[in-house]
Amino acid sequence: MDFKILIKRCVCFCKVGLAGMLALSLSSCGTLTTITNPDFVIKKDLQKKGTICKRIPRIYSGVRYDYCVVMSNPVSGLDESYTEDHIFDFIGSGMLDTLVLPYTIFLQLSKGSLEIGKP
Predict the structure, then answer these.
(1) pTM value?
(2) Which of 41, 44, 67, 71 is nearest to 56 (CA)?
């Protein structure tokens, strides 16, 4: 097998793998969850998971959301892989939170933190 063909196949395989990882990380992205959903949906979701968090600041809300999911109390029926996905999502959420920082600063100043309360 020619070395150039092997390199091309390897690059193609890496692109497909990276695209798949990106799609998986965006599907559980804490930043997208906290920015695109209304407050009551996020509150209900975290309460259902048995979170220990009482509030989420809007600035870096994706990272904080992932933290709240990972540190939630065990609830029957909660898939453990779902929690593991959020551990890997910390990096992606941190990068995306940095990109939307001006918007989240505005939200924090105008609406304040997202109150979760007790489940």
Answers:
(1) 0.70
(2) 67
